[in-house]
Amino acid sequence: MRRRESNNRSSNSGISTMSHHTRFQDADEIIEDAAVSSNHDDSMCELDGAVDKAVEGSAPEPSMVFTGSHDKTSADYYFDSYSHFGIHEEMLKDTVRTKTYQNVIYQNKFLFKNKVVLDVGAGTGILSLFCAKAGAEHVYAVECSDMADMAKEIVETNGYSNVITVLKGKIEEIELPLAKVDIIISEWMGYFLLFENMLNTVLYARDKWLVDDGVVLPDKASLFLTAIEDADYKEDKIEFWNNVYGFDMNCIKKQAIMEPLVDTVDKNQIVTNCHLLKTMDISKMVPGDASFTAPFKLVAERDDYIHALVAYFDVSFTRCHKLMGFSTGPRSRATHWKQTVLYLEDVLTICEGEAIVGSMTVAQNKKNPRDVDIMLKYSLNGQRCVVSRVQYYKMR
Ligand SMILES: C[S@@+](CC[C@H](N)C(=O)[O-])C[C@H]1O[C@@H](n2cnc3c(N)ncnc32)[C@H](O)[C@@H]1O
Q1: Ligand 1, closest atom to CA 119?
Q2: 260 C-alpha vs ligand 1 centroid, how far in Å?
Q3: What does the angle CA 344 – CA 57 – CA 7 come to, to the nearest 5 degrees?
Q4: Distance 171 CA to ligand 1 centre (A)
Q5: Which UniProt keywords apply (predicted)?
Q6: Domain 81-187 has what CATH class?
């Protein structure tokens, strides 16, 4: 999965609405010849091994090659998606995200006055520009993709070359022309908070360059879990593979259910409370804290079916005059992070007051540290449904 790509429920079906002049037989006129039964057992697997095995079976990404005057091929963009302006456009237009950072900086100028700032993963340089405008003494904007060249030009065009220095390179490899900075600012959050693992880059920068009483912005991130009714979409995305034009494609269903889906969830689908799984203190945590096991208890607020658990995160800036931040939850204004949907193998029938209890284990994938492995253990001991299961997922 490429980060921050748009993949709405309504738009990812790939069905064209274009009309054609030729009159073909309507799709609905084709009569199905047989129904396929789907009584295969879904086998359990180990967190690392089976997840990777499933991935190995998948087809490689086709790479389209342009010849001629183009500077970059799609393969270049695949490996370096932040070089393309499109991904930055999507982030900048996420006003929940960008305006929160702007408000944090402009409304808390006392934090920045005469301070040296390090912007970790500066992209277009937007956060550095906010900091410079708020009165920072100097800002070092570090960006590893080719967008650094644009950031340099943007800084010059806007007359901030004397305050902002753009450094092109990886945080882990660049040299800063000074020993310490007062503030580290970064927008590092991935889908499911931890996908892409940029948090480790921020922690690396903090440990190397931040003064002892320095400020990290944002400094708190919390991961939440809730449960939803999602019959229609589970049918469309998962059960679909049971019978594809009369053929059993259950082997793909097993892969599909292991891939968390990044999508927006309607707040009316929420059946239980929202449980705080984990809060990370970015100013104090160590990289290992991003891998954890956390228990949860989701209590039904009405009688309903449950098809999936949904994860989302909040971030906060606790060093401001007043607490500031934003939520990516289904009850808040939508962001480009949407929510992360983990489909359950079982459909749970739950009555008001009953609880799904379990734990979620989150870990960096050993082969590819940018991927996230998730193990979900859950059980329900209800009037209408008794179930206990372990499921494995991989964000990739
Ligand atoms: C989520 S974007 C945020 C961009 C910008 N700060 C903003 O708020 O619009 C993260 C940026 O960090 C850069 N990045 C990721 N890892 C990095 C690293 N190790 N060193 C330097 N830049 C990195 C990416 O290329 C990307 O442009």
Answers
A1: 6
A2: 23
A3: 55
A4: 10
A5: Methyltransferase, Nucleus, S-adenosyl-L-methionine, Transferase
A6: alpha beta
Ligand 1 center to residue 121 CA distance, Å? 3
Cα angle vertex 311, ends 122, 104, to 5°?
35
Distance in Å, CA 106 to ligand 1 centroid: 21
The larger pLDDT score, comparing residue 295 to residue 45, is at 295
The more confidently predicted of residues 58 and 334 is: 334
The pLDDT score that the predictor gives to residue 386 is: 98
> Quick check: is 56 catalytic?
no
Average pLDDT of span 117-138: 98
Ligand 1 and 154: CB distance under 6 A: no
Residue 161 confidence (pLDDT) above 50: yes
Which residues lie across from 247 on neighbouring strands? 244
Give pLDDT, residue 79.
Answer: 47
Is 354 among the residues known to form the active site? no
CB 250 within 8 A of CB 241: yes
pLDDT at 61 over 70: no
Instruction: Spell 301-310 as b/e; 16+ CB within 10 A means b.
Output: eeebbbbbbb
Closest among 251, 231, 243 to 341, alpha carbons compared: 231
Residue with CA closest to ligand 1 atom 23:
121
DSSP for 145-170? STHHHHHHHHHHHTT-TTTEEEEES-
- Ligand 1 atom 24: the closest Cα is on which residue? 121
Q: Where are the domains of the chain?
A: 81-187, 220-395
Quick: pLDDT tens for 187-230. 999 999 999 889 999 999 999 999 999 999 999 999 999 999 99
189 lines ligand 1 (CB under 6 A): no
CA of 95 to the centre of ligand 1 (A): 18
User: Taking Cα atoms as reference points, which of 94, 110, 69, 128 lies closest to residue 3?
Assistant: 94
Q: Is residue 123 scored above 70 in pLDDT?
A: yes
Average pLDDT value for the chain: 86
Closest atom of ligand 1 to 186 CA is 6
* Contact 151 CB / ligand 1 (< 6 Å): no
Express each pLDDT in 269-278 by its tens digit: 999 999 999 9
The reply to whether ligand 1 has any atom less than 6 angstroms from the CB of 168 is no
